[in-house]
Amino acid sequence: MVTQTQELPETGEIVLATITKLTDHGAYVTLDEYDNMQGFLHVSEIAPGWVRSVSKFVREGEKKVLLVKKVNPGRSEIDLSLKQVSKEQQKKKLLEVKRIEKGKTLLDAVKTSAELTDKDIEKLEDAIFSKYDFVYDAFLDVATKGITALDELKLAKKTASAIQETSSKIKPPSVEIRGICELTCSQPNGVEVIKNAILDSIGDQTASISVTYIGAPKYRLSVTGPDFKTVERMLKPVLDKIQKIIEKSNGTFSFTREESKKTREG
């Protein structure tokens, strides 16, 4: 039962809830992020149109992303909606919850490694939240940029070392854009022209850009980076330079994209 002193969700907030009991009129739920306080999902808010059977849409024990439609503290009532939650809101909420859970796990690891107290962890969380929206984002930043990313937080040496060690186990997210370059050059040294065009265009970016010979005149170009925007910025000048060099030598150039790939952080 909701009490006056218990923190309440706000109207319009997106929450994660667990279905606890089904009735003809809807479903009772507990709100995962609010000490499992109870809310009600009316049958009219489960799905558009007439819902003949509640059990066709929700099941006991199932977790659902819901919209807080109305909060009445005086009567301890929280009305929720499933049908008003968009797929984008659902995806965003589930990702948020996942990041929160990952953050808790990482903090537990740091607590054990650095032998910190509960009070130490609370202070560490406050410091992290002064710069990041999620604890996990701080660890991901360290995994990507190194422990210097947290310099401004002025952490104790043993805490920073524990965070660095824990962050080293995180695999940062990445994306890959691939495509087939078809390159020809009819000059006597055409093979060398093509080879040099590729090497000159890639330069010192071999850690992020690779080229695989498929069979004349095809070469697969692969570019990886933290996000699609960054990768696109890396790809364009490489393609432009290859094309310029090849066409300057009276050769031909074309590029056909293949399906892009995205790896999840972990």
Q: Which terms would index this structure?
A:
single chain; 266 residues; alpha+beta; five-stranded mixed β-barrel; five-stranded antiparallel β-sheet; 6 helices
Provide an overview of this structure.
- It is a single chain.
- With 266 residues, this protein is of the alpha+beta class.
- It is 36% helix and 27% strand.
- It has helices at 87-114, 118-129, 135-145, 157-167, 190-202, 228-248, and strands at 14-23, 26-31, 37-42, 63-72, 77-81, 174-184, 209-215, 218-225, 252-257, 261-263.
- A 5-stranded mixed β-barrel has the order 1-2-3-5-4.
- A hairpin with a 2-residue loop joins strand 1 and strand 2 (26-31).
- Helix 3 crosses helix 4.
- It is flat, with a radius of gyration of 27 Å.
- The two termini are 37 Å apart.
- The mean pLDDT is 92.
Write the layout of secondary structure elements.
Blueprint: E1 14-23, E2 26-31, E3 37-42, E4 63-72, E5 77-81, H1 87-114, H2 118-129, H3 135-145, H4 157-167, E6 174-184, H5 190-202, E7 209-215, E8 218-225, H6 228-248, E9 252-257, E10 261-263
Parallel strand pairs: 3-5
Antiparallel strand pairs: 1-2, 1-4, 2-3, 4-5, 6-8, 6-9, 6-10, 7-8
Helix pairs in contact: 1-3, 1-4, 3-4, 5-6
